[in-house]
Design goal:
2 domains; 304 residues; alpha/beta; Rossmann fold
Length: 304
C-alpha cells in the first residue's frame, strides 16, 4: 500500500498546477455508480456549449478534469466534464468505459444545451483512453489531444486505427525524455511509439500534429497544455466550419440534387499548400484540407 501511495503521488506531481476551476457540480454518480465532476462557466454563452472531457491518468479520478477544469472559468463557451473510470482496463475501453462516457454525454445533453460533438483530452492513461475512444466513436468526437500515452492503437492487441476517424483533428505529444516502456510487453517506449503512431496516421490521411518537447519526461508539459488549447480553438472554428459544409453537401446528395451538390462542392473544395508544414496549426490546416477534399469526392461519387 505504501508503494502504491508513492506511485500515485509521483504521478500527481507530473500534472499541471491546479488553476481555479469553474463552478463545480460534483462529485456525482453516473448510471454505473461511478463518480464524475462537471465544471460550468459562471455566465455561459447563449449558444450551445462545447463539451470538453478531460480524462485522468491511471489511478486518478475525474476531479479537476485532467487539468482542464479551469477552462470553465477562462471561457464562456464550454462545459468541462471529468469522469472517473475504473483503474484497470479503461485505457483500452474495458469495463464499459466508453459506454460510460456515451451515457454521460447523453445525460448532460438533457441538462445543458450542448454542441453535437465532444472535445477529448487526456494525459498518460487518459491519452490511451481518448485516442481509442476517437477511433471507436469518431462521429461523437470533435477533436482529440492525447498527451504521453503509454500505448497507441497500432494494431493487434493495442487496437486498430479507424479510417472513419480521418476527419477528427488530433494532437499527439510526448516529452523527448519520456522514453520508458509502459510495460515489458510494449513494443516501444513512449516516445518511439508516439512517433510510430503519428507516422501511421499521416500515411492514412489523418488530420494530425505532433510535438515532442525537449528535456521533458512523463508530464503534461506547459507546451502540451498550450497545444491542447490551440487544438480546441482550431476544432471549434475552422474544423467545425468545414464539417458544416460537408453536412450541407451530404443533405443535397441525399435529396438527389446533383447540380446543387456539384456547385457547393466547387465552393467548398480547398487549395492544399505544397509546402511542408512547420507548426502544429499548419499541420492541421493541411491535413484537414486534404481529408476534407477527399470526403467531398466520396460524397459526389455516392451521388452518381
Amino acid at each position: 500500500m505504501r508503494l502504491l501511495a508513492l506511485v500515485l503521488a509521483a504521478l500527481a506531481a507530473t500534472l499541471p498546477a491546479q488553476q481555479k476551476p469553474g463552478r463545480n457540480e460534483g462529485p456525482q454518480k453516473d448510471g454505473l455508480g461511478r463518480d464524475y465532476w462537471v465544471y460550468a462557466p459562471k455566465r455561459a454563452s447563449s449558444k450551445p456549449l462545447w463539451l470538453v472531457v478531460g480524462v485522468h491518468g491511471m489511478g486518478g479520478t475525474g476531479q479537476g478534469a485532467g487539468g482542464l477544469a479551469a477552462w470553465a472559468t477562462q471561457r464562456d463557451d464550454c462545459l468541462v466534464l471529468g469522469p472517473t473510470f475504473p483503474s484497470q482496463g479503461y485505457q483500452f475501453l474495458a469495463q464499459e468505459s466508453d459506454t460510460q462516457l456515451l451515457r454521460l454525454v447523453e445525460d448532460l445533453g438533457k441538462r445543458h444545451k450542448l454542441q453535437p460533438r465532444v472535445f477529448l483530452a487526456g494525459f498518460s492513461g487518459g491519452a490511451q483512453y481518448v485516442h481509442r475512444f476517437a477511433h471507436a466513436h469518431p462521429d461523437k468526437v470533435l477533436a482529440v489531444a492525447a498527451n504521453s500515452a503509454g500505448s497507441w492503437s497500432t494494431g493487434g492487441q493495442w487496437g486498430e486505427i479507424n479510417p472513419a476517424a480521418r476527419l477528427v483533428p488530433m494532437l499527439v505529444t510526448c516529452g523527448e525524455a519520456d522514453t520508458g516502456k509502459m510495460a515489458a510487453e510494449a513494443p516501444f517506449g513512449r516516445l518511439e511509439w508516439a512517433k510510430d503512431y503519428v507516422r501511421r496516421l499521416r500515411e492514412g490521411g489523418f488530420v494530425v500534429a505532433e510535438a515532442y518537447p525537449a528535456k521533458v519526461g512523463h508530464s503534461f508539459s506547459p507546451e502540451a497544455q498550450k497545444l491542447t488549447a490551440e487544438l480546441f480553438a482550431f476544432a471549434t472554428t475552422r474544423a467545425t466550419e468545414l464539417a458544416r459544409q460537408r453536412e450541407a453537401l451530404a443533405a443535397l446528395v441525399s435529396k438527389g440534387d446533383r447540380a446543387g451538390a456539384a456547385r457547393l462542392a466547387d465552393r467548398s473544395r480547398l487549395m492544399v499548400a505544397a509546402v511542408v508544414p512547420t507548426t502544429p496549426k499548419a499541420h492541421w490546416e493541411q491535413g484537414l484540407a486534404k481529408a476534407h477534399n477527399a470526403a467531398i469526392d466520396e460524397l459526389l461519387k455516392a451521388a452518381r
